[in-house]
Design brief:
heterodimer; A: Rossmann fold; FAD/NAD(P)-binding domain; 4 domains; 7-stranded mixed sheet; 5-stranded parallel sheet; 17 helices; elongated; B: FAD/NAD(P)-binding domain; 3 domains; 10 helices; 23% helix; 24% strand; globular
Amino acid sequence: MSETGTGKTEMTARVGVYLCECGPNIAGKIDLDKVMADILSESDRYRNVELVIRRYGFLCSGPGKQYLEDEIKENGLTHLVVAACSPRDHDSTFMEVCSRTDLNPYLYRIVNIREQCSWVITDPEEATERAATYIRGSISRVLRQSSLFEKPLEINPDAVVIGGGAAGMEAALALSSDLRRVFLVEKSASLGGGCGITMPQEKAVIEDPNVDIYLETQMSSVIGFLGNFEIGLKSADGKDEEITAGAIILAIGSDYSDPQESGRISFSESDEVHILAEAERTLEAAGDLKLRDGTMPETIAVVHCVGREEQGYCSGVCCSSSLKLAAAIRRLSPETAVTSVYRDLCLPGADGENVLRMARESGVELIRTKGTSLSGMELDLEKMDGTSEKRSFDMIIPAAAIVPAADTVSLAEMLRIPLDEHGFFKEAHRMTDPAGTTTEGVFIAGTAHGPMSVMSSMRFARACAGQVLTRLVPGERIVPEVKVTEILEAYCTGCGNCLDVCVYGAIYADTDRGISVVNEAVCRGCGNCFASCPSGALRTRHFTNEQIFREVDEALR
Amino acid sequence: MTQAESILVIGAGIAGMKASLMLAGPARKVYLVERLPIIGGKTIKNEESFPNMECSTCMVAPIQQAVLQNPHIETLTYSAVESIEGSAGDFSVSVRIKARYVSLEACIGCGMCFEVCPVTLPNEWEESLIEKKAIYVPCSGSLPNVPVIDSERCLKLNGTEECNLCVESCAFEAINLEDEDRLLELKVGALILATGSETFDLSALPGLGYGALPGVYSPMEFERLFASNGPTMGEITLRGSGAVPDRVAIVHCAGREEQGYCSGICCMYSFKFVRFLKHKLPDVQVFNIHSDVCVPGKNYEDFFRSVNGGDTEMLFTSSIADVHVSGTDSGLRVAYPDGGGVTADLEVDMVILAAAIIPAPLTARLAELAGVELDDSGFIRTSLDGSGSMETSRAGIFTAGTVEGPKDIQSTVIQAESAAGQVAFLMSSMADLTERDPSGKSVKS
């Protein structure tokens, strides 16, 4: 492994300690000469350590960085402590300086004596004392640090897209090129997904020479990490195939809720109750909506928000779909009276407003209620003015909520990614990484992420594609996190605690040897496992117990 | 690096920053142009973001830092694009970098110069709820944390007197009053327009009292009133009297009818304001006067339910257009038609208007410069082929975020990632064409 610890050897360590004056910002409050003298006076506390301790005006300036670089080289420093500002400001600056020398950047440490000292402590004496304490702690810690080395990995730029609906097809088209193959895996026998209409991308996907389409096929296994996945595919006729790719995009779509799960809605098989998506498909295919006896309904009610209460979310697209359908029915069979029953109209954007206008202009009756219940073919409408009304219709179309697809759970288990509170795939971060998951290289597109419009689904698909296009560049390598956790095999009892707490799926059980094993390419060094290990077998590089305890001991001395 | 490998991103809000970070690398240089002296956009004006009530500045600060420290991103703050010529793969753009008078390299943001400056002026970034000096950073926590001098108000720069106090106060010799605007000519292969949006001008709705009644607030004013780095350090007190409000009405859909669309996020920020109010003032009564509750998506209804009933009373009105706010001896009166169409009165001492999201005033000018189409509402038009593409009507120019239409942070980031992907695809196709048989695959977008 990449550990070449120097702290424990008998070799003499030469630790450079450089104090930045930051003009008056540090030197104006802290007596840097006193800090230097105090630390030097105790240098015999460090065995086999020589201290080089200096102060400088602005270490982050061009000349400051050059000075530091020359100092490291001329003094043959083995470790470096820079007492300056917040690591947020200049940690990377000084790591960069180290990397221009033979000193490994992980044998350096920044101490914040500005934001956490001179700027916040009013008494100069106290600030001076505190600065010395912080620096002592860091000298102690840096001596226990080890060199770490980045290990760039070759990548495979290809992508697997699971699901051949609007999102999956859009992702495939956005990614495919002569430089990148896309494997589009669809469970059913045809592309198109749950939109109920023929998607315009279908032809382009089929004709694209860089998209391999697998119909009636499902993902059966997956191992690997961003840039290097091995994916097992199983077709309906039992054929197995293994493919390799750098990224996986989950675009498996969604289902609709059962309207009857709501206590307020009950009907029987023979009632003319058809959920919205079904009605949309029939209208698209047949050009009209007939009753089972083949006659045209005289009255149709579209009921919005069915399942909103039970699912605990507004699907956000049903109002628009419901009104579009209502208007389309009016257009195609003007003799049919169509009523839309809603609680709130959720129609964001200019398109939403257009849909509402279209519905009004086509003569759709709009009724706002506080609540609606259905028994057979009769609706009980609780109106806004407090009255209620019962009305029967020839056909009732409930706008059922969008719910997670049945495969969501098994895929999440296979990929070791979490689900959210509603059972959709959970994003890495709701706002800053909404298409990513906790497993790097696995992305979510379309309604597998949550209810959304077809347009949003395609945008999510393109966002996933964007991640792949910018992170997996053909010919470039990726650099995994170096501050990862390692397992000291001799101490591991194979209890499996760490497997349970690893949110990145970076640890697996080696059942033959009865131990846990960390996949360093997947580990992000969060330290959860480290904290959960009862036998001390886990060690997170650059955050070892010894490093942390020695720093604290020294600071509290 | 050839122009085909450089990209210009206009606007350093969350969309522009995300797209820049995704695209910047050893093979691609990004120029990120921002009109303001700081980066971060509108998100950093919100102390907390719905629905997780996550600290927005904490969420955005690492992104800002990553942008500023990225060696492949050249961030040009306090700058404006003046012309865009050429075509996809070969654009020439001129950028004016306004004189800042303070060196980005030398200044460390200690703030000594503000203290000595004798000039005060309204701080627009803080919705003019507080003043700033003629040498200023818009807010505490500004990134880059380097001030700028308002040349029209600085006594020395506008010729009033020979004031040199800031220069003398600076230990870093960072202030140069001789600084001048610079023009930069850039060659880039593609552009991303990510200049954001504004909120509806509430003074256009006189019936709601904004501007005339001090107790009536715009949403951005209320965001800053709540912010712990804001004008009141996060104390919710009434403009003028300084009193703490007991009863607050939030009036939804202000400007919806005028704009002709529902912005889709105002219900959520209104409910967030309920949380803000109840968090700081547990005894406050909050009323939401609304017609439709629009909380689309998997995370928002939960949030609505968490405030509905307990923390706020939802008052239905059959017509937002007929809501009227007037002043009384003790505070404000909100009159609105209720569910039965009967006018109801509500006595409160603070009103917050949930204003629509509208195109920023500079969007039309940017569209003209870039030669891209706007939609009927004045946002930049995208996805002309219905495919979700973030390309505008002009090839090689993409867009992302609320400059394209009202949306939440999640959708903004999704668009930024989409646009970045399309730019990366375009660039690699072009690089590909130069070194490969041109009979290869054509560019898709």
